[in-house]
Amino acid sequence: MSVLPLVIDLDGTLIRSDMLAESALRMLRAAPFDILKIPAWLLRGKAVLKRHLALQTDFDPRFLPYNRDLLDWLKQQRALGRKLILCTASDLSIATTISQHLGVFDDVMASDGTTNLAGSHKAQALEQRFGRAGFDYAGNAPADLPVWQRARRAIVVNASAALATQVSACCEIEQVFPTLTLNGAVWRRALRIHQWPKNLLLFVPMLAAHHIANPGMWSALILAFVSFSLCASSVYIANDLLDLDSDRQHPRKCNRPFASGAIQIWMGGAASLGLILLSLLLAHQVGGAFLPWLGFYFSVTCAYSCWLKRLMLVDCLTLAVLYTLRIVSGAAAAGTVLSFWLLAFAIFIFLSLAFVKRYVELQVQALNGVEKAPGRGYFVADAPIVQMLGINAGYAAVLVLALYLNSDTVIHLYRSPEVVWGAVPVMLFWVSWIWIQAHRGKVHDDPLIFAITDKTSLLVGVLFVVILTIGAVGWPW
């Protein structure tokens, strides 16, 4: 058995993330304007930048995305008597916190605010301490090649096949821990393409105004749908990046691509920027007032991601507004005039669904014995009140629908307005149904996605459309 010390890298090796990027994200969330200081710190050297970010941000080492296979192997090696050294380019304060939490390392070597312990600097420091070929090294990146050149054996972690070939030319490979597969399925989860059906709300104003046979509206709305979906995906990625800490404490959200480390943070930042630029380009092609409304939606969503989602009640009201803005944007793209009734119905029904979303999250936290929802302004004990508010909002939406059906607008738009009254009990049933399912723990995270996949909700939707269609064209006999 080898008695040589085993040196382990941190970023991308022991954890499936990068602490420099994580620290920058935490600063962006806690003090956005302090990000402007980063260029000045970087001009003084990367070690200075890492030290300032480490001092101005805090993190909980329990919830980092550790490479569990590697960590289990390290524990086995320690049990066999090997000395383990955590050696990282991250700041010493960060490395020390992680080391103390894990309790498997005998010593820590890290950047100290003066020297950035990466690449050749790390190789020199390790050779000076242990001698050439006096240690084995676990790393993951091309920057680790100088270290492997001075090590006896290599442990290759989360690296490409090409890098593994380069490492084998430097020294003997003792162990390989494969990388997580980054494929289209992972990116689809990051982009949340399954959420795109929510953007079909853009078509509601055209359908409500009975302009279904207008090809110009269809072409504009299809382009608007793609633009809105790309914008939404951009915001989803940004939200996941800013919400890493709370997602990692959630039993399901911890498996999201960024929280789990399946996709690196820098990739998410680049993708988010690219998506929003492409979205704005398509929005410009739509014309009309669609681009300003898309920009307003984007601004409100960013405010929600950075701040508003942490404010009790304000978060749900904002979600309701964001859903309603899809309808407003659809009217802008189609060039139709929105009715008061449609806006009133939308804000109440979406407020109810926003409370469903929060209620479900509080249920999950209660099952995990947590008193307060991470990153939210609610206590688990607030769940009954949230439930009550949500049910009331849902029934208020049905009341607005009933009042609308008694207006002059219905007489002008529908050939058989008395038939449309059947939509009221249908909506009463669905609002009651989704809240009962939420109470039973059958709704997961997003109620609209639940509605799209729930057979009963789909049946209700078909019945609702049939009633409106018969009301518009009259009885078929």
What would your notes on this structure say?
- 61% of the residues lie in helices and 6% in strands.
- The chain is of the alpha/beta class.
- The chain has 3 domains: 6-177, Rossmann fold (3-Layer(aba) Sandwich), CATH 3.40.50.1000; 187-338, Tetracycline Repressor, domain 2 (Orthogonal Bundle), CATH 1.10.357.140; 360-477, no CATH class.
- It has a 6-stranded parallel sheet, sandwiched between helices.
- β2 (84-91), α5 and β3 form a beta-alpha-beta unit.
- The radius of gyration is 27 Å and the shape is elongated.
- The N and C termini lie far apart (88 Å).
What is the topological layout?
Elements: E1 6-8, H1 19-30, H2 38-43, H3 46-56, H4 68-79, E2 84-91, H5 92-102, E3 107-111, H6 120-130, E4 136-139, H7 145-150, E5 153-157, H8 161-170, E6 172-177, H9 184-191, H10 204-208, H11 215-242, H12 244-248, H13 257-260, H14 265-286, H15 290-306, H16 314-334, H17 340-367, H18 383-404, H19 408-413, H20 417-420, H21 423-439, H22 447-453, H23 455-473
Parallel strand pairs: 1-2, 1-4, 2-3, 4-5, 5-6
Helix pairs in contact: 1-3, 11-14, 11-15, 11-16, 14-15, 15-16, 16-17, 17-18, 17-21, 18-21, 21-23, 22-23
Low-pLDDT stretches are none
- Tell me the radius of gyration: 27 Å
Mean pLDDT over all positions: 91
CATH names the topology of the largest domain as Rossmann fold
Derived structural class: alpha/beta
Helix content class: 55-70%
Just give the CATH class of the largest domain.
Alpha Beta
- Can you tell me the overall shape? elongated
How many discrete domains?
3
Name of the CATH homologous superfamily of the largest domain = HAD superfamily/HAD-like
Please outline the major beta sheet. 6 strands, parallel
Amino-to-carboxy terminus distance = 88 Å
User: What is the H/E order?
Assistant: EHHHHEHEHEHEHEHHHHHHHHHHHHHHH
Main β-sheet, spatial strand arrangement: 3-2-1-4-5-6
DSSP summary, beta strand count: 6
Secondary structure tally, helices: 23
- The second-level CATH architecture of the largest domain is 3-Layer(aba) Sandwich
What percent strand?
Answer: 5-15%
